[in-house]
């Protein structure tokens, strides 16, 4: 399993979102409070963020635990952003992909993370994988379930689907092919955040007055304004609005 978070709001140092809160993503790497599967998220981490005037995000990813990376501590102290997506990873299966398997994945303006696991991987997604062009399969960032789920989402985005629809349709396709999968997906382009709650926890903190929205696997503090997203839901958010839409179970 994993923990992930997306932030839209006023420009702040990365550490204000990822390190300083009492139960920030940094602490969730060894002491998550609401994680249902797994206990320690030490198999890699990553953060992607947007610089003012540049729609293409930067990324910093590593294969080891976030607490052991002194370079990240410096980065988090000095880099400021008004939009980010970050994750800490608990690998479902061991593999050799290391840093390449750490979210966020990226393409163009998009950053993506998957909190969960595909049941029966890799065989269960064979019929979905063949829908992708060969060059997209061969250029997957990693050989894991999250990378393939990202490729399926990205194909829909490139075909013109709106972000929330791309996530929702991908979740329903994967859930139909691999029942029992956990598919909490998180996607941002620096202006909007879309996410799905499917098999694990998802929360959001909306602060329209400050034009700030946070979407995360679990709250990073004890602010009573945090709200839990019901399971089987797609979330679409900006800095000032959050919309929740139920997802139906896939047809048998």
From TrEMBL:
Keywords assigned: Glutamine amidotransferase, Hydrolase
Domain of life the protein comes from: Bacteria
Xref: PROSITE patterns: GATASE_TYPE_2
Domain Glutamine amidotransferase type-2 residues, every copy: 2-252
EC number: 3.5.1.118
Catalysed reaction, written as an equation: gamma-L-glutamyl-hercynylcysteine S-oxide + H2O = S-(hercyn-2-yl)-L-cysteine S-oxide + L-glutamate
Keyword Hydrolase: yes
Alphabetized GO MF terms: hydrolase activity, acting on carbon-nitrogen (but not peptide) bonds, in linear amides
EC class name: hydrolase
Tagged with keyword Hydrolase: yes
GO biological process entries: ergothioneine biosynthetic process
Pathway where this protein functions: Amino-acid biosynthesis; ergothioneine biosynthesis
Function summary: Catalyzes the hydrolysis of the gamma-glutamyl amide bond of hercynyl-gamma-L-glutamyl-L-cysteine sulfoxide to produce hercynylcysteine sulfoxide, a step in the biosynthesis pathway of ergothioneine.
NCBIfam families, A to Z: ergothioneine biosynthesis protein EgtC (TIGR03442)
Protein name per the record: Gamma-glutamyl-hercynylcysteine sulfoxide hydrolase
Lineage: Bacteria, Bacillati, Actinomycetota, Actinomycetes, Kitasatosporales
């Amino acid at each position: 399993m994993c923990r992930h978070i997306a932030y839209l709001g006023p420009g702040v140092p990365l550490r204000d979102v990822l390190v300083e809160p009492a139960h920030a993503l940094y602490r969730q790497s060894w002491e998550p409070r609401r994680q249902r599967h797994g206990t320690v998220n030490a198999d890699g981490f990553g953060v992607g963020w947007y610089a003012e005037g540049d729609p293409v995000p930067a990324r910093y990813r590593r294969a080891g635990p976030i607490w052991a990376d002194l370079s990240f501590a410096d980065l988090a102290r000095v880099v400021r952003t008004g939009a980010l997506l970050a994750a800490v990873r608990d690998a479902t299966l061991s593999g050799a992909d290391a840093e390449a398997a750490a979210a966020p994945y990226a393409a163009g303006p998009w950053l993506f993370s998957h909190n969960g696991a595909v049941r029966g991987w890799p065989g269960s997604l064979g019929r979905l994988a063949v829908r992708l062009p060969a060059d997209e399969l061969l250029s997957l960032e990693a050989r894991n379930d999250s990378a393939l789920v990202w490729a399926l989402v990205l194909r829909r985005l490139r075909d013109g689907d709106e972000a929330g629809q791309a996530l929702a349709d991908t979740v329903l396709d994967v859930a139909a092919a691999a029942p029992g999968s956990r598919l909490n997906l998180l996607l941002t382009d620096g202006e909007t955040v879309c996410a799905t709650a499917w098999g694990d926890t998802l929360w959001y903190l909306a602060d329209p007055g400050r034009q700030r929205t946070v979407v995360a696997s679990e709250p990073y503090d004890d602010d009573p304004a945090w709200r839990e997203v019901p399971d089987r839901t797609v979330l679409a958010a900006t800095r000032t609005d959050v919309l929740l839409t139920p997802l139906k179970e896939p047809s048998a």
